[in-house]
Inverse folding.
């Protein structure tokens, strides 16, 4: 069964740090780009980070310079290191898999759609 | 950043009736190299993680009923449900991933 299981969420003080983990199973982890998406309670979805199969990383301005994404293909694991946390970072953090997609007739489809989601891990930043 | 705007934000529906959700992007999501449109639709059912419904504008994800369809072009997109069922309730999100930062719409709450 294809599965993503997040862990590491906790209550942390403003200015603190936290490291989230995501353990993947049931698929060849190294072949997929991986992503983090967060959702404040009762609100919408926000993309947080991407790491490609080649190790390139991307972040929105809201977390750039504070968050780091990494992966360990040998352990089928994805990580999100979060520093200088603020109340605005309080959210449920999801690990998601980027689809491989397919190509046909000169066009490619589905690449990096978020086709598998974990159950999320809660991060609360509060004094 | 590409801004994604969904309408309506709330959609009361009657089982068996059709439903339609719109999504507009502030820039074209058309990849000029291969003609693909990098627009996906997700459904978050109550108490659950989001799930992929539609990718690359109009392709249904595995296991998604053919009652769901996606269409559009360039900057205007639509998710259609031909006959709403009770299990379809939840919040629907569009998302663009043609360019970083990837961005989601605000979400449309479908309620029976």
């Amino acid at each position: 069964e294809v599965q993503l299981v997040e862990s590491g969420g906790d209550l942390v003080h403003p200015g603190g740090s936290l490291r989230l983990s995501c353990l993947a199973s049931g698929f060849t982890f190294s072949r997929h780009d991986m992503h983090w998406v967060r959702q404040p309670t009762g609100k919408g979805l926000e993309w947080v980070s991407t790491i490609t199969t080649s190790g390139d990383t991307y972040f929105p301005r809201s977390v750039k310079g504070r968050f780091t994404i990494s992966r360990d293909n040998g352990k089928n694991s994805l990580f999100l290191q979060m520093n200088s946390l603020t109340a605005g970072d309080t959210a449920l953090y999801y690990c998601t898999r980027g689809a491989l997609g397919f190509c046909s007739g000169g066009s490619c489809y589905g690449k990096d759609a978020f086709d598998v989601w974990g159950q999320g891990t809660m991060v609360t930043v509060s004094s | 950043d590409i801004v994604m705007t969904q309408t309506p934000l709330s959609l009361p529906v009657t089982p068996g009736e059709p439903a339609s959700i719109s999504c507009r992007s502030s820039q074209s999501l058309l990849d000029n190299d291969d003609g693909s449109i990098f627009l996906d639709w997700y459904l978050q059912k109550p108490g659950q993680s989001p799930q992929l419904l539609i990718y690359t504008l109009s392709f249904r994800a595995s296991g998604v009923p053919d009652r769901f369809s996606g269409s559009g072009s360039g900057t205007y997109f639509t998710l259609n449900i031909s006959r709403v069922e009770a299990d379809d309730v939840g919040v629907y999100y569009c998302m663009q991933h043609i360019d970083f930062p990837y961005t989601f719409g605000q979400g449309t709450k479908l309620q029976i």
User: Anything to note?
Assistant: DSSP finds no helices and 13 strands in chain A.
